Amino acid sequence: MFSFFPSPLQQFFLTVAILASLVTTISTATISSVVTNHSWREDDQVDEVGMEMVVRIGNHFEAGGRPFYVNGFNTYWLMALAVDPSTRGKVTETFADASSAGLTVGRTWAFSDGGQGALQISPSVYDENVFKALDFVISEAKRHNIRLILSLTNNWKDYGGKAQYVKWGKASGLTLTSDDDFFSDPTVKGYYKAYIKTVLNRVNTFTNIPYKEDPTIFAWELMNEARCQADPSGNKLQSWIEEMALYVKSIDPKHLLEIGIEGFYGPSTPNRLQFDPNTFAGQAGTDFIRNHGAPGIDFATAHIYPDTWISSSIPGDHLQFTNSWMQSHIDDAENVLGKPMLFTEFGESMKDGNFTVGFRDQFINAVYNNILNSLRRGGSAAGSLLWQLFPEGTDYMDDGYAVVLAKSKSTSSIISMQSRRMQMFSSRCSWSRKLICRRN
């Protein structure tokens, strides 16, 4: 139940109540997947969808003056599918599936560094065909009214990441001893900055919109799961975050920016280390509160993987950890950082020996309920993104976390219900002094 303030205009509140009731009764439409075999034509245009740039207002997001809450998903390999004509239609299918479940934000890689099929073949050398694949991903997201978080590189070796940048540095004659030199070597940092500049200034060949002007992009992410284990103090990573955040904002001040870290607490908050999943997490070189206090970082992120961080054999502990992990981060985002909190990855692997769809549903419900509890009291939780959504016929890419909505009706129902709830909150709540959403 909600109480609304101020309350002088009875007709206004009656209208709001009617609209909210309509939202809850609308069933999720089933949208058929349209597989389009696009060629890379410069004049290919997409249907225009009225999107506004998402902005941060205090510890909440807004779009077009209205609250914006996130029920989203990850599908990191969309660009790789888009570059191949035989699989390009799966990109469209992924967005159609997501839209049918009411999902509003997707997270995917906007990088592929070195190796076969790379976007960035070598420093500042790009494959235009792969870039057009990224253009296509963004244009299809726009067509399905889904916004994107675009990650700019990887902590891990998959798709190149920081290890590839260090390899390029070594090949040029630099003396580098660790992949974590990515965070401190001036030349390597220059490679990364050049990539940022190229991506942000890119003009989409399907929409003719520069990336830095496109409201389809919800936010930029500096690095997927950034860690700097070579420096447990966290100083090296912190300096890198501050430098890169200011650099991104100097090119693109309009879009939101986040780091991409997993949410581990570090040396700056010893009283919070108790919430880390293990002692190793506190030595990863990341520092949740300190990192997210950096100028230019608009919102906080964390991931949730109890099956790899805690134990694969005691599901009960997974839920207990999930609840305490989420609550500590929501509290810190609200009371310390004053920023929105987005859980950008969460999942339970089918490779877990105790995995059942029923337990996965229970886990997803726990994540969703923690977010709803925060929303009801006006807290910092802004939403979550499931790891990860798969279209049918892509099982060969499954990392154990695949959720195919058409094959898992119970999970699909939970996801769709959360989408409706988030839409209802967006309809009922406003931060513009007209209406305040509070818990009774």
From TrEMBL:
<dbReference type="GO" id="GO:0016985">
    <property type="term" value="F:mannan endo-1,4-beta-mannosidase activity"/>
</dbReference>
<dbReference type="InterPro" id="IPR001547">
    <property type="entry name" value="Glyco_hydro_5"/>
</dbReference>
<feature type="domain" description="Glycoside hydrolase family 5">
    <location>
        <begin position="53"/>
        <end position="388"/>
    </location>
</feature>
<keyword id="KW-0378">Hydrolase</keyword>
<keyword id="KW-0326">Glycosidase</keyword>
<dbReference type="InterPro" id="IPR017853">
    <property type="entry name" value="GH"/>
</dbReference>
<keyword id="KW-0732">Signal</keyword>
<dbReference type="InterPro" id="IPR045053">
    <property type="entry name" value="MAN-like"/>
</dbReference>
<protein>
    <recommendedName>
        <fullName>mannan endo-1,4-beta-mannosidase</fullName>
        <ecNumber>3.2.1.78</ecNumber>
    </recommendedName>
</protein>
<comment type="similarity">
    <text>Belongs to the glycosyl hydrolase 5 (cellulase A) family.</text>
</comment>
<dbReference type="Pfam" id="PF26410">
    <property type="entry name" value="GH5_mannosidase"/>
</dbReference>
<feature type="signal peptide">
    <location>
        <begin position="1"/>
        <end position="28"/>
    </location>
</feature>
